[in-house]
Amino acid sequence: MSVAILGPTFQDLATNVNRNISSLSLIFVGRAFGFLSGSVIGGILLDNMNHFLLLGMSMLATTVGLYLVPFCKTAVLLIIMMSVFGVSIGILDTGGNVLILAIWGDKGAPHMQALHFSFALGAFLAPLLAKLALGTTTVSAANHTEADSNHSALNQSSEADSESLFRVPDNMNLLWAYAIIGTYIFVVSLFFFALLFKKSSRQEKAKASAQRSRRAKYHNALLCLLFLFFFFYVGAEVTYGSYVFSFATTHAGMKESEAALLNSVFWGTFAACRGLAIFFATCLQPGTMIVLSNVGSLASSLLLVLFDKSPVCLWIATSVYGASMATTFPSGVSWIEQYTTIHGKSAAFFVVGAALGEMAIPAVIGILQGQYPDLPVVLYTILGASIATAVLFPVLYKLATSSLNQQRKEHRKSEDQKALLSSSELNDYEEENEEEDAEKWNEMDFEVIEMNDTMRNSVIETSRNVLTKPVAEISSQSHSSAMVFESSPANSGKSPVSHLARNQCKRD
Q1: Taking the CA atoms of the chain, what radius of gyration do you get in angstroms?
Q2: For residue 245, which of 258, 230, 229 has the smallest C-alpha distance?
Q3: Which residues are CB-contacts of 33 (< 8 A; sequence separation ≥ 6)?
Q4: What's the predicted TM-score (pTM) here?
Q5: How much helix, strand and coil, in percent to the nearest 5, is found in the chain?
Q6: SS3 of 65, please?
Q7: Considering only CA atoms, which of 336, 3, 358 is closest in space to residue 185?
Q8: What confidence tens digit (pLDDT) does each residue in 356-392 have?
Q9: Helix axes 344-371 and 219-250, enclosed angle (nearest 10)
Q10: Residue 456: count of CB within 10 angstroms of its CB
């Protein structure tokens, strides 16, 4: 809101300092250089200061700037104030991206989309607050044209001599518009100061230290290519959003009302898709969203170049182009965090690239469009920027993943070595087990042999005892039978035959 409020109140500010619009155009240049300076300063300070403290102080400075802008009564003071205001905005832009990466790391894609959706939402609400809610200005701009430049110069000199540099503006709606937005930013700054006193847990510290150690092999090359990527992307986005109205009226033959509606369609689809991207980021990878955005922007810009005279194609392609451009910047920041850690200076580097694209490309296109009014220079520009981003992202992806592939190969090699070592250790262990088993079996064989010898001796002894006992018994029996034999008739000298013969004679 603080950035977008300048557009709808630009005429009121020119009236407040007694200048016409053309002579006050340096206010945008001053704010742009302030934004670039703030991005660089913020990148340096973010690496050395607490993030919440720096963002809170920047928002507090933005609040003071918004309060003082309506009171500026000279053009020089207003340009200086806008330059200082741009410094604080540059710090906030860089710091917001770095803070999300520091808290959520490569898991912060939905939060990054929400941050950039808030930019689009603020740009949508600021004109409504400045003109519709508070009403239009009551001072006519016709009194401050080039025809009255001499009168304005006299008024400026007299006011510079007799009045102070700050004074309450005649248009109170201008004062209330800046005061309301400034108060809102002041309330938000209090939340940052409150978060300053919240101590982080050990887990968050460990996560932060782990993130600091992650650095891609081609870190600097990735940042340079991302600088160019955002240069073309933001330049094309601002160029088409700024020149689509004039292109539709002069080249496509649309009415001013239709051209204004076409311009609203572009920014409306842009803001809507940034809101939807919060939910898409929970299920899609940032790289996938960038590829889809590049394909959509390339196809729509090509259709615009081929069918630049067709009103139907102009409506459809403009809406598709606005939707395709919505998620590229936040997805790009989330994507690069997956491969290398982004600190303050790194974030400031590609934010400066985006700011330079926002400044340089629309200025160059304005000059070329004036020299070649019959050519759709705006359409050629967005087509060239779409081709540039479509070519740059595969190069970025190749550089980012090359180090990971090398690390994976080294990891696989180390795992194979560990597997080989473990298998050799297992073989040694099995051989040792086999030797131990063999020794055990040998011991068991010796025991069996000893047992067999013992059993054999016992059997022999038993058999000897068995054999000895019958012999003794037989010898004793033979001895007794011998005694009986000696006492028998045969042994007394009388044979049984003679005895039987004597008995037979007696019977006769």
Answers
A1: 51
A2: 258
A3: 83, 86
A4: 0.67
A5: 85, 0, 15
A6: helix
A7: 3
A8: 988 888 888 888 888 888 888 899 999 999 999 999 9
A9: 30
A10: 10
